[in-house]
Design brief:
D-Maltodextrin-Binding Protein, domain 2; two-stranded parallel ribbon; 9-stranded mixed beta sheet; 25% strand; alpha+beta; 8 helices; 292 residues
Amino acid sequence: MCSSSHSIAGRSLPAMGGMARHLGAALISAAMLTAAFPASARELRVCADPNNLPFSNRAGEGFENRIVALLAKDLGAEVSYTWWAQRRGFVRNTLKSGLCDLIPGIAAGMESLRTTAPYYRSTYVFVTREGGPTVSSFDDPVLRDVTIGVQLVGDDGFNTPPAHALSRRGMVENVRGYPLYGDYSRPNPPARIVDAVASGELAVAVVWGPLAGYFARREDAALRLSPVQPQIDGPRLPMVFDISMGVRKEDEALRQEIDDALQRRRSEIAAILAEYGVPRAEAGLVQTRLGR
């Protein structure tokens, strides 16, 4: 038994050495394969509209596209998009259907979602031509004597806060509605209301700030933008809104990650917003940054 055992042990020594060499070669090969084919990066799945500048489009030209790319870099992730027209049912058909995990650019505190802390605050603005009427308040008498454009939401023409503010003051006959969604077969549907001021079709338009700031810069006519007053009309009609990102209610971990990344990248986000002409309202002071 001892001899047999010693004989087996003696023959096993070179075999063990060969095994070690083969194992080492295998480990080196595995390391080379890992380097050549790295593990897939984390995926940040985002819901967005493919034709909704200045916020987003399929070419990634919107400021929300830019901000999302910044957050993904911060988190070591790659962005993948679920493209869906931002109409009624958008949240239900995308985020809540599990097609994506994050929606940028929504009103803070939206009840159906869990939202981050706001990363910007903006306001509705009056849009007029240079040399045209100067308007800063819904109580300005000049509004009774000119044609005013307001944005409408949805196929049923749901009224936006400025439309309600004008209606409360008895201004109805001289108000024209422009669908926020517009003709989706054309690029940049929301631009039509700003085009109407530039062409002289409207004397004044009341437009959500990010849209006005972006499209006004692209008109041939020089346009003037003035933040609306009051910021809250009547008891419960705000004209200024905090904008956040949203996740499903159960995704608190992701919400916290996005929140932290937004905070870390705050100065870079501010620079992107300024580049796109987004009027920002901070601590009651509206920072227009709307120059041509």
